[in-house]
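Hi, here's the filled form for the chain we discussed.

Project: internal
Contact: R.S.
Residues: 224
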Amino acid sequence: MREVVLDTETTGLTPKTGHRIVEIGCVELVNLVPTGNVYHVYINPQRDMPEEAFNVHGLSESFLRDKPLFEEIAEDFLEFVDGAQLVIHNAEFDMGFLNAELKLLNRAELANIAVDTVRMARKKFPGAHANLDALCRRFGIDNSAREKHGALLDAELLAEVYLELTGGRQPGLLLSGEEEAAKSEEAQVAKKVERSARAHAASPSELAAHAEFLEKIDDPIWRS
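And the returned structure, exactly as it came back:
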């Protein structure tokens, strides 16, 4: 199954008050294994950058001024996520912003199924903190490079968290090394004792030799 772990950075908390996306980061997984295929882009929001948002991700208005508009990257982004299940930390937030950007372009909303890792974490660890940093600490994932929020870095960290939440690092269907070795040894033994059926009857000389051998047996049970 193809999944895309996704994160965005924005100018604020809701698109309803005019806030926009400024960064998208995506990491591709196939059958819970990272493929190395990523999507990452900075976006010019065509507006100012509030101080509160800048303090979160460190993306300034001047840094973003020469970056592409969302309408310029929309097709590439949609192509990358096409057909994939999305994995998002607080999915409602990111999906709301992405669909708002698409609406501005008179395009349809995303049809992708979105898995919310915040809900997964709260269900698995009731009462515990479910933010990304807390989950990294819980699972022993190195997040020392996360001085500020960054869409691609956060997507990469979330991919590791997601694998832990789903048990993807130790799938139950996979055999341990010892089990694999034992099964391999059994297969080799079975292979050694396999014989094809004899394709022809015994020759006269073979029958005579057999009869001679039987005469040497004292009181055989078949003559009782």
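Let me know if anything looks off before we file it.
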